[in-house]
Write a structure and sequence with these properties.
This protein is mainly alpha-helical. The chain folds into 3 domains: 1-100; 104-166; 172-210, no CATH class. The protein contains 7 helices and 2 strands. It has helices at 4-29, 36-63, 71-100, 106-132, 141-159, 172-178, 188-196, and strands at residues 199-202, 207-210. Strands 1-2 form a two-stranded antiparallel ribbon. Strand 1 (199-202) and strand 2 (207-210) form a beta hairpin.
Length: 211
Amino acid sequence: MGHQWLLFALMTVVSWGVYGILLHKGQVLMGDPLNGRYKAFLFVGVAYFVVAILGPLLMLKSAGATWKFTAGGVNWSFWAGVVGAIGAFTTLLALGAALKGKVANPPAVVMSIVFAGAPVVNALVSIGLDRLAGRQYSLPLPFMAGIVMAAAGGFMVVKFKPTAPPDPKPGAAARAAAGFGGGLILPPSVLAAASVAPGSVDVTTRTYRIS
């Protein structure tokens, strides 16, 4: 039981680690470049309803909990949900913009920035709230170094993000599909005809005309 918190934390790491990949995949598979991100977010909301509403209701019911809620608990929990939903939505916007910006792997880049920057914001805000509440304590140097390293990691991801290869020149893909990308490829029957009679090659149909 002493390490149960670590197990739950690692479960969160796995869940949030694949979150961006699944979100990006759903957005792309919607097949709507303009509104696919909004359609994907709609089903994120459906999942939130199933997991974040029905799940707690069943757990509270099975635990025999009371249905009394404090104003402060409701207020802070509601705004936690709001900022979480905003984060999910802006993640979708970032993935879509990265795809349009020719970023080679949007989930890898976007989520790396998110997970490098979020701990920094979390640490600074939580420390600030503690100070406002009158809780004073010293910050170990390795802790501060970790925050700086996390921020540096986010900067490096942005600075050295992979870019998608340039689109092929117009006509190159068609020539490659036709078999002429690296040279003229003719079927054996055409080559046989060319060896016995003079004529000309029609590259559009890959046929040999005997003159």
